[in-house]
Amino acid sequence: MPIKFDTTNRTPLTEGGEGAIYEYNGKIVKVFKPHIDLSTKERKVNALVKLALPKAVVKPIDSVTDSRGRFIGYYMDKVTGEEFKRLSNKKFVTANNIDTKFVLSLLVKVKAVLDEVHKKNIYVGDLNDQNILFDMSGNIYLIDCDSWTVGNDKCSVAMDLFKDPRLKADNFNADTDNYAFSVLAWKCLTRIHPFGGTMQPDMAILDRMKKGISVIDRKEVTLPRTVKSWKGFSPDLLNEFKAVFEKGQRTLSGSLEDMLNNLSYCKKDKEYYYSKFSSCPYCDSTAQVNKKPISQGTVGGLKLYALYDGENIKTVFDRYTYLDNDGYVRNGMWKVPYDTQFRYYFLENGAWISETSDYFSFQTDKIYTIDKKFKTSLEVEGNSIYFISPQNTLVKMEVMPNGNAMKNICKVSNTAYFAVSNGNYCILNYYAGKIIVNVNGANAVIDYNGDIANYGIHRDEVTGRWLILLEDTAGKFYTYVLNGNEVEYQTDAIKYDCQLNFPCISNSTIFIPIDGKIRGYNYKKSAFKDFECGVVSEESKLIKEKNKFVIVNFENVYVLG
Fold first, then answer.
1. Distances (CA, A) of 150 to 96, 112, 146, 507
2. 480 neighbors 467 (Cβ within 8 angstroms)
3. Which CATH architecture has domain 3-77?
4. d(CA 496, CA 228)
5. Domains 3-77 and 82-274 share a fold
6. Could you give the CA distance from residue 499 to residue 537 in angstroms, rounded to a whole number?
7. Architecture of 82-274 per CATH?
8. pLDDT, position 130
9. Where are the domains of the chain?
10. Tell me: the pLDDT tens digits for 45-62?
């Protein structure tokens, strides 16, 4: 219900061009000044009262009248916060430990609110960095919504430095809001207006806005030293800002959200940057972002993508690691100069491991060199390294910043092979006439009279079974599926033209790479099914990830699905 409010003997908290703000019973009352068109304001307030809007919008709860029942304003919830304008102040953000990640999170919330109000055909119009508040808990508040465009009642004024130069009359809409938001976002993230700085020859900022001469990639614009660098922005986000400021684009994508969801922190520069850079762009001027997956079209109705920029790849080592044409081994944003005598792995924390036939090395607080059994393999998961010691013991080493935790898992035979998947292990202990398979401590015995020239050990992540593939020196293949300590399936009828670590297993189906196809064999149903895929050959390693195949070739990594 409307409340009656008498301003006599009341001192306003603050006063603006349109009205005065008073505190009343824990709420806030806004009373319009006499020169304001009260009939328009009353329609707009009544409409906003009835609308369901995001909580971040500080909208009218009800109207306010004078002692005669005449409309004079409205009341609303009281909120406290800082104006977004403070985010452009270096001293303020430094004193309050406000970082790029926090600013991005605020901006993403504002953008989400704008998307919601736009769906109701409501437009802020006068969107700027003084009518949006935030607090240190990450809450945002959009105030002064009585000035918004609601229905046929238009926003009548906007701050020039945020106003879309393409605006016609008072036709505020989603496009003009998106332009103003882009100005706001750039200013908060870089501490400079997108058309700030000084030009030679000088040009007024409003004229530069009309002509699209922003600060991005402009040598003729001199920037103040307080500006915060945008080197760490994702290329998509930077290109979107440039398209809005210079090319007339007004539709915003998800590049801001993508930036927030993919951040890394550089301890040296004490700054966040887009995590898909090969290295910190503030430290390394050559840092690059891997291009988006390149569509290869469709195969059998499934999309096929190349994950990396093939022009920069000399050869692929595994799912996440490749050698580039500049002589670096790369894994995500990490890189290390390549030396032909080593095989390389990367820990989750970015530390790299170099392996030879009888030892491996890595560096955290210092350089560690660990002996392993000659010509045995290494398995790396997260920040853990699994290896067989010279004492014939499977060891798990957890790498930590200030030391390493070593755990002996179990003894193994003199000839042993193993694999690890999501913390589960499978060990093949080879003896004359038999193989004892240790799966997480449970043993299964396989009668085996041949030798082992080639092997593959794979885990079915759906069922928890293990697939063991063996080839003897006579070229005969053996396939085993283990369920715990029981051999659930075995055959010597399947021939493999690929290396035995190239197939995979998922949901009781063995997938084998062949020329131009992925061949699936469901051992429970004894049924084969081929999936056509031109990038697959006998030299492709297959990985099943839910409903997709990852295809690791020497020239690139592909995703089918």
1. 36, 18, 9, 55
2. yes
3. 2-Layer Sandwich (3.30)
4. 57
5. no
6. 11
7. Orthogonal Bundle (1.10)
8. 93
9. 3-77, 82-274
10. 999 999 999 999 999 999
